[in-house]
Amino acid sequence: MLRVDFLDMLTDIVKQHFQITYRTELLQDPKLHGPEIQAMFTRSCCPTVDSSLLSLLPSLKVVSNGGAGVDHLDVPFITGQGVKVTNTPGAVSGSAADVAMLLLLASARKIVESLKTAEVPTAAILPERLRGVEVTGSTLGIIGMGEIGYKIAQRSKGFVMTILYHNRTRRSVEEERVGGATFCESLDDLLRRSDFVVIAVGLAPDTRGLISHRELSRMKPGATLVNISRGQVVDHDALVKALQSGTIRAAALDVTHPKPLPRGHPLLGLRSVLITPHIGGNTYAAINRMSQTMLENALAAVTSLPVPNEVKSRRLN
User: Helix 284-302 to helix 93-108 angle, to the nearest 10 degrees?
Assistant: First the structure.
């Protein structure tokens, strides 16, 4: 089952192995379609997987989710119904890491503000408000050293950055060496030392509101916060106050909560804030990898083979 406006690429790949029933078709005649459906394909919150939908699908074996995050799914409830949940953790990790570096660099050098300025300098000296900060040789703190965080670290080595990371579990000595990263057991220590802080954690009860007033107050006044994880990980009210007061220098966000932000939200009016519409995995290659992985997960589940990316917990890092 697919939502009607799902990506054409996914539809083309899935229909080679499955007969597709759209949610609207199911709801129009659940007795005709429901008993036959064995796999559900979902991305973000479409379709919403709740008890009313699952009750129409007695033969369902798997919910194949696109993307690494499954915070929009009630995994314990779904698996409690005997239905497997899968995700695609590696499909978008490279493109998401690229976006983290894009946001970091664009914010550091005030790229968007420079493009939007109406001033055409006639001298070699640009306006002070367009003066950026150095990325090369600075200190990067990565919160969440999963696959995406690790790829961010690898990219950052090219900028000769000192790389710190904080994670639930420490990486192996060899992984730290290859990634060029140093473990910080204390989040406060990472925040205190970093010029740029990139958040790459999954959304879970212990990461919701992870960065709020207290954490922002621990950061350097010249620091930049980059969030590519989930909007709920950062307290937006606290972030607005930190930026307005000069507690931190800037923020670059690929995710917000809600998404999109309502017109008039304070973050939209701050020059020090750069916001993109969750473009982390939005490349042709990433979408193709995600679609292929979703299909592989679903095929394995319906044929009783080992499922490559089964989600058994909501902790992703």
Answer: 150
